[in-house]
Fold this sequence. Notes:
The chain has helices spanning 2-23, 79-87, and strands at residues 28-42, 48-60, 67-76, 92-99, 112-120. Helices cover 26% and strands 45% of the residues. The mean pLDDT is 90. A 5-stranded mixed barrel has the order 1-2-3-5-4.
Amino acid sequence: MKYFWIFLAVAVLLLGGFIWYKFYFVFGEGVKSGYLNYAVKKGNVFKTYEGKLIQEGFGTTKVGGALGSNQFEFSIEDEAVFKQLELNSGKYFDLHYKEYHGSLPWRGNTVYVVDKVISMK
């Protein structure tokens, strides 16, 4: 019976470590710049804030390899940041973001989470 409890404790620790690494460990962070295409609040059960930046320059699209603009889709946790973006759609923004390995339904639809606006032009 002693080995069962040791095994259970190790399994719970490993599972907890995996969940923390997958959903809460900040894999990367940085700044993206571009024109704000939209900022919306959407969701069926969890209402989350989502947005999209159109970055300058061109790249190939995922489907068909056609030429298209670079897009950065992101989620927003802070309502104050969302309000600032929502009121200034179409302007040029520098946004600070954090990148996670996985997304959570209450955090947003993407692995990129914008946490602050650095500048707006």
